Amino acid sequence: MTPSVLASAVRVFDLSLGQMLWSRRSIFLGLLLGGPVVLALALRIISSLYGLPINGAQPEGATIFGMMVWLLYIRFIVPILGVFYGTALIADEVEDKTITYLFTRPIPRSAVLLGKYLAYLVCTVLLVLPSVMLVFFLIAPTGGSSVAAAFPSLLADFAMLIMGLASYGAVFALVGTRLKRPLVVGLVYAFGWEPAVLLFPGYLKRLTVMYYLQALVTHEMPQDSAVSMVLQLFREVPAIPTSLVSLAVIIAVTLWGAGRAVEQREYVLEQ
Amino acid sequence: MTSIVAADHLSKWYGQVIGLNDVTVTVPGGITGLLGPNGAGKSTFMKLVTGQLKPSKGTITVLGEPIWGNPALYHRIGFCPEQDSFYERMTGLEWVTALVRLNGVADAAASAMAARAIGTVELTDAANKKIGAYSKGMRQRIKLAQALAHDPELLILDEPLAGMDPIARRRTIRLIKDWGRAGKSILVSSHILHEIESMTANILLINQGRILAEGNVHQIRELIDEHPHTVHIKADRTRALAREFLAHDDVLSLRLEEGAVVVQTGRPDAFYARLTDLAASGEHGTIHEVTSPDDNLQAVFQYLVKS
To answer: What is the ipTM of this complex?
Structure first.
């Protein structure tokens, strides 16, 4: 009897997580995630020496942290992680010619994809969360903010980041299994299509992940600044429940599509 | 004897390139050798048999069932692929255990089954070393271990002796014959007749995507013997080996390359037997790897196709 997709996926997850965590990709992207920490450290030093006035006022640390989460993590790092890992879930095994070992075992091929997707999710969460926490503890105390008061919003940010990683990972898993040149397509989608469509009114923005993620941002942005005006443009957002349901649907549909593609596709390995 | 693989007008093409062309063949139980030069269609046939590829035309059944899209059948099949690819950071034991777990076996049982398979291929001492540190022969053997760990009825081995040193080669041939005697069916591919012949008399000859002949190896043996057999040997002391080889009249020609000696022999059986003894004695240093290009076999196939 063939084990269930979920049970098989858990075993593929066990096999894949260590490989993914210690891959060159993770080391490189781990270094990238050091960027916001270095920036936060610099801001902390500048803040303690000169203060950080925006339009003459000193914003709270929690506000700066919220901006960093939105602009650096959600708008940049999360899509980058989704593109680089999501498009490579199966492609890495094909390129390394190890896919044969997984496809000649009594498990559905879609379980291989699902297991590797779960490994991606845990791997990227383990990469992102330490970076976010360091940034939080460096930035939150500035401007007279209380770390304890800001802590609940950190948890909300964690949840939003995990939802973003899950959504982008699933979308790019579909891209990786269905399309040629998935990395290029993924980068164009994340950094061409999404930012462009979000700037214009209309329904097209509903075809982006970012549109739904915006609703989950809990932070108040600084008012009366150029930054806030740009951010307000982006914040034409649906209600939180609508966003959560939409993101769940995106994850389910794209993973199902990716699983179907893996089930039906022949992988011809170069000898 | 019931058939283990049955192909009916089986074809596979990649775009405009034909990999396998209208093959109808039945593979019986026991050990069967699939023999053909590189590019003959062996790997395509193996990939169809193992359900990695879908037939473009015709049908293929394994152990009486279609294999494409039928993952449950892999409980009964063990596959050792040709490619030298691994999760290099894992130890041999971790890797085989992880793959056995994919068969639905619980952790402790999977670990025990993996350890037993690793013992069977005589790698117990290296079971806890990282695969990245394994020699070529050890890598071949750990691939065999993952194929047989779950005790399948049918073993499909794609070029299992490629790159092994003479001693590992002899051990592996002995293992394959033992498995055959233990009641397993084995389909093993190679481009070297001598290897196949040492495991079984039952062969399928494949070339240019077609099965040219099936049956007893001895029927084509005389043809093969008319063509010199080339052997490429990587060793520490190539000059000493060359001097030793030249003392025997079955060596037709010999040349030295960097770290290797290339020999043409008219009697491969005698030559390989002597080579194995030399490797075991260590008299002329370590022999690292023995390979055989398929030029000689290609010549025989060209002859067969023309005749």
So the answer is: 0.84
What ranges in chain A are assigned the alpha helix state H?
5-21, 24-32, 34-50, 61-68, 78-86, 91-95, 99-103, 109-139, 147-178, 182-188, 194-198, 209-213, 226-234, 240-264
User: What pLDDT is recorded for position B298?
Assistant: 60
- Domains of chain B (ranges; CATH) run 3-222 (3.40.50.300), 223-306 (3.30.70)
| Domain boundaries along the sequence of chain A | 5-264
What SS3 class is residue A157? helix
Supply A133's token pair: 């926490």
CA distance B293 to B290: 10
CB of A15 within 8 Å of any CB in chain B? yes
Q: How far apart are CA B210 and CA B98, in angstroms?
A: 37
Which residues are paired to B289 by β-bridges? B234
d(CA B149, CA A101): 13
The count of C-alpha atoms lying within 13 angstroms of the C-alpha of B279, restricted to the half-sphere facing its C-beta, is 21
- B91 Cβ under 8 Å from any chain A Cβ: no
* Whether B15 contacts chain A with CB within 8 A: no
Single-letter amino acid, residue B305: V
Q: How far apart are CA B24 and CA B9, in angstroms?
A: 5
Q: Which residue of A has its CA nearest to B13?
A: A268
| Predicted confidence (pLDDT) per residue in B21-74, tens digit | 999 999 999 999 998 888 889 999 999 999 999 999 999 999 999 999 999 999
State whether residue B73 sits within 8 Å of chain A by CB. Answer: yes
Q: For A247-251, what is the mean pLDDT?
A: 97
Nearest C-alpha in A relative to B106: A11
Q: Which of A172, A23, A15 is nearest to A84 (CA)?
A: A172
Chain A CB contacts of B103 below 8 Å: 105-106
Residue B254 to chain A, least CA–CA distance (Å): 29
Residues of chain B neighbouring A11 (CB-CB closer than 8 A): 98, 101-102
Give the span between the Cα atoms of B94 and B96, in whole angstroms. Answer: 6
pLDDT in tens, B115-155: 999 999 999 999 999 999 998 889 999 999 999 999 999 99
Decide if pLDDT at A57 tops 80.
no
Residue with tokens 């960093």: A68
B43 → closest Cβ in A1, A11, A271: A271
Cross-chain residue pair A105–B74, CB shorter than 8 Å: yes
Which pTM was predicted?
A: 0.83
| Structure token digits, residue A66 | 């919220």
Q: Rounded distance, CA A252 to CA A250, Å?
A: 6
Tell me if B101 and A11 make a contact (CB, 8 A cut-off).
yes
